[in-house]
Amino acid sequence: xxxxxxxxxxxxxxxxxxxxxxxxxxxxxxxxxxxxxxxxxxxxxxxxxxxxxxxxxxxxxxxxxxxxxxxxxxxxxxxxxxxxxxxxxxxxxxxxxxxxxxxxxxxxxxxxxxxxxxxxxxxxxxxxxxxxxxxxxxxxxxxxxxxxxxxxxxxxxxxxxxxxxxxxxxxxxxxxxxxxxxxxxxxxxxxxxxxxxxxxxxxxxxxxxxxxxxxxxxxxxxxxxxxxxxxxxxxxxxxxxxxxxxxxxxxxxxxxxxxxxxxxxxxxxxxxxxxxxxxxxxxxxxxxxxxxxxxxxxxxxxxxxxxxxxxxxxxxxxxxxxxxxxxxxx
Amino acid sequence: xxxxxxxxxxxxxxxxxxxxxxxxxxxxxxxxxxxxxxxxxxxxxxxxxxxxxxxxxxxxxxxxxxxxxxxxxxxxxxxxxxxxxxxxxxxxxxxxxxxxxxxxxxxxxxxxxxxxxxxxxxxxxxxxxxxxxxxxxxxxxxxxxxxxxxxxxxxxxxxxxxxxxxxxxxxxxxxxxxxxxxxxx
Lengths: 330, 185
What we know:
The complex is a heterodimer. Chain A is α+β, with helices and mostly antiparallel strands. Chain A folds into three domains: 26-75, no CATH class; 87-245, Sandwich (Jelly Rolls), CATH 2.60.120.1440; 255-328, 3-Layer(bab) Sandwich (Phage tail protein beta-alpha-beta fold), CATH 3.55.50. Chain A is 28% helix and 34% strand. Chain A has helices at residues 8-18, 26-54, 61-75, 247-252, 263-274, 282-290, 302-312, and strands at 87-95, 98-102, 108-109, 115-117, 120-124, 129-134, 139-142, 147-152, 155-166, 176-179, 182-186, 190-196, 199-206, 208-213, 216-221, 224-228, 234-238, 277-279, 315-320, 323-328. In chain A, the strands form two sheets. Chain A has a 17-stranded mixed beta sheet that branches. In chain A, strand 19 and strand 20 (323-328) form a beta hairpin. Chain A starts with 7 loop residues before the first helix and ends with a strand. Chain B has a domain at 1-92: Rna Polymerase Sigma Factor, Chain: A, CATH 1.10.1740.10. Chain B is flat. Chains A and B meet through helix 1 and helix 2 of A and helix 2, helix 3, helix 6, helix 7 and helix 9 of B.
């Protein structure tokens, strides 16, 4: 057989010999599909609106106004949204007035423990913050003056303000934060996404994220801040995981309950919230594992709490370049 | 659904058309990108950017070239930008850009089990798969279903959502397109 003279049976033999073409994984296809579908729907909606405008819909101003309010909500629902009855998260902390509302529904004041369905919008005001624990693992902390919608258990639409995601033990690459200025995907991490005006800022505390914007992809590793501006430029700078910039995320979180907790658990909480790496001897670690704490640290920052708790355990902290060194107090 | 109808319906917001467009072209574009960057994660990112751009300008596609050719053109730009951002050139020569393909095809009829022969055969397999990817519409899928998965014409008709006669006709056209595509390599 030559490749210039291929009969039907030759074709069959050739294709069989070559075998199946490699297929991208279903999770890969689902991720890409979601992103592309969002764009496709947005384009379709924009075209519809342009068409209506061009057709002189303005003559029916009152009716059109109503239609334009209703139409985008009813036809451009976020893709892949599970049934609204399925809870995908619960409110783990709410300080001040935090509201939740399903698309098109009435907003209600959020209470700790309240379940949240897919499609719910979470809103904070100038003085309120919240933490939402996802049923699939991980959590979202919501800063002041923020509006974010949980499209599904792995997708957040950030309309305004800032959120901090901790993907916890969930599958790397599983969180997506969409904003009007770009899409941020995590690669197993803790990170903050903030929209202000037409700028989008991403800060990575640990792990790495990917910012997708107008066809451009920028990756940000641990300790990086990316700012994507409306003119298309993206600037980068360093941000320490233990910097004061992260303080709001602890304020938004549920308080740590010291009473009856082990010293080890407390230290791990403080180190995680403070962005420090603990340096301690095996003996100290063993001691911390068996030391039971009593009392409360309500309202304290992690550093303040360490300053209060450690002396009662005979330890002293030392902070050096993001490392928390523990020593026996002299 | 032919490419023009598919694109026109997708532009109008027809969800079925979008689904068909994605399912038809995402795997093919993914393989197209993967051959050029050799990293599945990067290929995924590039194909996502490609399809997002395509969605934005789908209404401007006039059908002079096939839809897949048009998508490949966008994807090539994405791949080029990727390498430019990294400040280096690709280490891989995509098989569909390589002049050695013809020589590799000549080796198909040669016998022997040496590693060199095995490599040649792998290259040829790649070329066959490449041709399948570049066939119009779902011809590549239809040929795979028939000859690799062993589906009957009736089962292919069910998958395509067409009549038995239409499926037979598609299979005939797919074989013809493959023969022409393969011979032109």
